[in-house]
Amino acid sequence: MNTAPDPYPIGTPGTPWGEAERADWLSQQSRQRSYESEVLSVIKRLSPDFDVEEYGALDYGSERYPLMAIRSRDWRDDLPVVLITGGVHGYETSGVHGALQFVEQHAADYAGRINLLVAPCVSPWAYERIHRWNANAIDPNRSFHENSPAGESAALMQLVNPVRDDVLLHMDLHETTDTDESEFRPALAARDGKPFEPGDIPDGFYLVDDSENPQPEFQQAIIDAVEQVTHIAPADDKGEIFGSPVASRGVIQYPLKQLGLCASVTNAPYRTTTEVYPDSPRATPEQCNAAQVAAVCAGINYALANQ
What we know:
It comes from Marinobacter litoralis. One of its GO terms (molecular function) is metallocarboxypeptidase activity. The structure is a single chain. This protein has helices at residues 19-27, 35-46, 93-106, 124-129, 151-160, 178-191, 216-226, 256-259, 285-305, and strands at 51-60, 63-71, 81-86, 115-119, 167-175, 206-210, 240-241, 244-245, 251-254, 270-276. It is of the alpha/beta class. It has one domain (19-305): 3-Layer(aba) Sandwich (Aminopeptidase), CATH 3.40.630.10. It has an 8-stranded mixed β-sheet, with helices on both faces. A two-stranded antiparallel sheet has the order 7-8. α2 (35-46) packs parallel to α3, α3 (93-106) crosses α9 (285-305) and α7 (216-226) packs antiparallel against α9 (285-305).
């Protein structure tokens, strides 16, 4: 016998949140890790070999978060740009550390072949609180559009705008976690006054392609590389992954621009959103980071070979 899930503890079922509910939600968020010691310290360590810039800052109450980007030092206007973004959802840890690990271990392999632009932690407030939303209960990864309500999204768009037509490849590094189903999707339904409809979390790595400009061979090249590091999410008995039809093994499609997703911020012919599954008993944090790195390398290699 199926039982209805318990109502989310904030708000009234069926009624969208107002200021009081958002304030109640915010009061329950606590800092659980340090952006400065875990992210900024790594960026500082990389600064002798790369150009590091503060492209904006977030002010939430008494807290200020500098938004940092890493660029190729030998930037050349005749080279294609590769954009890597991580931590758009702050709780998706391997997106942040996978981006940094790629820069540290592999960026030099592509020197003189690409201009590299990396925003490793787009949402530092949420990184510290291991959360999906920013302090205003807004999802940055539905906010990449004109007049964005999310400072995280607006700042990144401003950073990228001068090169958006020069980007060959954009890799946006994400995770799908068990807390998507236990916390974040129920919170979203409550915030918007909608019923929560339970779903299944896929066990494994998958990709989100652009349904408006699908690149199946590019996506498959990434899947093939990542499979050497961690397992690929199978389709469920409906032929879906996380409620979306499987376009090819380990790949689903979203209309990126229509949904205001980060992967829509450039006109890159090659773009994808990675989805690592860190809660699998078959994956370690090190494997999750390595999967992100493998995805980035495979993406760059394919894009360069097929530009």
